[in-house]
Amino acid sequence: MGAGLALAVGTGLTLMGTAGTAQAADVNVAKNAGFESGLTNWSCSGGSGAAVSSPVHSGASALKATPAGQDNAKCSQSVAVKPNSTYSLSAWVQGSYVYLGASGTGTTDVSTWTPGGSSWTKLTTSFTTGANTTSVTVYTHGWYGQAAYYADDVNVFGPDGGGGTDPDPVVPPVPAAPTVGAVTSSSVALSWGAVSGATGYNVYRDGARVQSVSGTSATVTGLSADTSYQFQVTATNTAGESAKSAAVTGRTGPTGGNPGNPAVPKHALTGYWQNFNNGATVQKLRDVQSQYDIIAVSFADSTTTPGQIVFNLDPAVGYASVADFKADVAAKKAAGKSVIISVGGEKGNVTINSDASATAFANSAYALMQEYGFSGVDIDLEHGINSTYLTKALRQLSQKAGSSLVLTMAPQTIDMQNTGTEYFKTALAVKDILTVVNMQYYNSGSMLGCDGKVYSQGSVDFLTALACIQLEGGLDASQVGLGVPASTRGAGSGYVDPSIVKNALDCLARGTNCGSFKPSKTYPGLRGAMTWSTNWDATAGNAWSNAVGPHVHNLP
């Protein structure tokens, strides 16, 4: 029995085939089954599909298809089959309510589905072709009203119907030597030409691999100032890795590539600038209202390296070039404003949960400061943080950036209910380098104030009683700000009229204009207020910054 099994495996025999008997050389008749060539051979309804680099089950790409309205995001392919033959159909899927099926079989069409989840699940079924069937449509789709789903590694295994199968990959050829781009005192940007058949690339520094990327560019960070390095790249796919390219020399710049961070004023207004178009007024940085002292560029992007961040300027905001954006950063700084890079947001997720990811964050954040002139970072991680390693990351960044680093945070209300939460622990652990915590007093349910009473969002009491937790929990008054939406469209809930924000500021700083809650003492050093976003503020005619800005700047 064991010898017979070994023979069957070794000769490629299978029990799935014509009339259910063993057939040699059964193949996967689906083409571009892993979406490594984008959507080639596939058709998706209503333009609902796209090839993405993350998440993937294997290789470098997977299908992402998004249902919308009456479209269930059906993606299909016609495969060549043999009549009177049996085929196994399988795919790896991720997401809610994902379907896999086959139609036009000439016998009984089949489908299977899974309610899905956040991890990859394998769907499997089989079908038998009719006496005259030479092609079958295989498909995936999601469900109406559900979020996007993902699919990868589609397998239609059975006799070759004449269309063949995707050829086995071969090791890609050697890339040309990379080209050195922008350099800072701690980073070197590289780019190179695409290689046919490659699904990824490895970057080598002085002979040691330092990065793996799916595209044709990378920025190597964590380098010493004014130092020369040798860089090479290789091309990879499932068949293996090419030889290294010819080497190119890149030299980092001298120390001091980001001088002159302006000081944050005693009382400051913070605004988030949107690096995307979501229906709010589109702004360039030069258009940001003059009342804002700290401008948080939203947002940095994560990479496949845990903790590492990059910044991708969205064409939707209208800049002709990255250089134009950098010039705007410099101009704002020259006007005394702090321009910082925000990390996180509602949809952003940067994982910092190890020493390696902490270092990756610090190195990449500092590289962005050097490249774009950012004065610091804003931590707006809304999907959970690890205080131990985030603290390490911020400490390392502070050591690189020096005393002029601007460090802000924008936790949700639940994150600052007591000093035992991960966010509050982080704020206290970096208190000596922390500029301000602008908690988001919106998109929140009712919360406890420092007096133990429950307060609902949208009132003076909600702002003052929750701020009191931070003020009495160990933060300095200069490290506390009130974060609110700039307009009713700026958040799902929690918008308050600027007059309420001004009353809350007066209550905390002066002891006047309080609601039913009145703090036991005043905090004249209160830093100020924050809003999401400068764009929504502009949409509403700058009503928020025109009202709250002067009030903040005139606090005692």
TrEMBL record:
GO terms for molecular function: hydrolase activity. Residues 1-24 form the signal peptide. The keyword Hydrolase applies. This is Glycoside hydrolase family 18 protein. It holds the Pfam family fn3. Residues 267-556 form the GH18 domain. Residues 174-255 form the Fibronectin type-III domain. Keywords: Carbohydrate metabolism, Glycosidase, Hydrolase, Polysaccharide degradation, Signal. Transmembrane segments: none annotated. SMART domains: FN3, Glyco_18.
